[in-house]
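Researcher: Here's a chain I'd like modeled. Treat it as a single chain, no partners, no ligands.
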Amino acid sequence: MPRRLSLPCIIALAASVLVLGDYDSAQVDGAPPSKIAIVGAGIGGTATAHFLRQHFGPEVRIDVFENGTVGGRLATVTVNHQDYESGGSIIHSLNLHMQDFVKHLGLKHRRSVAGKTAVFNGKEFILEETDWYLLDLFRLWWRYGISFIRLQMWVEEIMEKFMRIYKYQAHGYAFSSVEELLHSLGGTGFLNMTRRSLSESLLELGVSQRFIDEVIAPIMRVNYGQNISIPAFVGAVSLAGAQANLWAVEGGNKLVCSGLLKLAKANLIQAQVTAISPHTAGESSLYQVNYDTPTETGTELYDIVVVATPLQDGVGPGIFFEGFEPPLPEITGSYHVTVASIVHGYLNCSYFGFPDPKLFPFASVLTTDTPGLFFNSAASICPVNISAGFRRKQPQEAGIYKVFSQKPLGKEELKTLFKSYYSVQVRDWQAYPHYGSTQGLPPVILHENLYYLNGMEWAGSAMEMSSVAAKNIALLAYHRWNRQLEMIDQKDLMHKIKAEL
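Model: Modeled as a single isolated chain. Structure tokens:
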């Protein structure tokens, strides 16, 4: 998912000389930036392009560098002439930026197709969803007491506080770090949630260990491929995404990314960024971006650069930051590998205790953190385009299943899950941070006008979290460029906003 760039020789030098004249007065006389670069065309990068266009206006040139496919971790695979989500799949109804994108782009919500979920411990189903909501509530109460009520109240309280970000951003306020942003929403409570484990926080809340093991752990496994030791704030984001009122985009979630690029009138450059370095032109401070395309190497100068791709070692080829004094802060940590296998075949219902597939009622199977279980989840999935007459395949029919696992499934594992299959497509994702692999949250500001978007997903990884980070960076870059420091890192914002109203 990361991308790179590099420079030619004489042609590049000539180009840089020609460019210098355009930048001599760049920031000195308060003029707007001429050129902005964004590295990465996932949801974070494309949303950043959209928000930067809103704030800096129509004159600035916005270049978006992407070595792979627009959409990044929002992607689809094709099976039998139908497309299916292989990356980020669901969006919460309270994700207001994503809702706004879809509205402005003229996209539609995909029609939902009902399906029941169960939790499997390697031997049997320990929790089964039924067609009756009240019966499900009674079963939860009977097995776990009031743990699920305590959990629901905790998640709702966190979501209510997090929703403040939309008011702050609507009034133009920005934050110079992820810590400042979280503190403005939930004070030290939110910051502490990034440092304490989910299991520790829930036990303190009065949630039972049994509920954590049988309900919370399976949700963490399907959403982040990790266990209940992940930070509490990440866990809360994940649990919010496990509630009802979820949706997706008709035609595929990646359409949001390509649509935002067009809406922003950004220039897509299919290239790999290899290096970024500071460059002085008269009294102006610029950044030189080096890149490689399939046919050539090149270099460009920019007033502002936003890196919207992970900078941790081992996540793609990486970007070299050269000539910065002092050197830029080191971005530590690693990304968690989740394997998504899209299988066209017949589910082996006998493995789950249902010899007759006609009696198997579940569309999704989550798993507990049990030694020896080789998959995190298995689900019957629907295409990204759902016709009016579409129906979900029954277990006795060949269907399309998405299986999440920690490593690629071997033949024996596939034979365990499926009676037979026609095809298997594997997407090996460095899908989200490996939480706990670093201390603290990555910086947002790397240099004067050099920003890093992906630090936000170390607080919580989701499409909306990237969109919130994109809006924050656009506001931050705008205010710092125009020296409107009173709009950055302001305290007691709820009181200020009420006073403004």
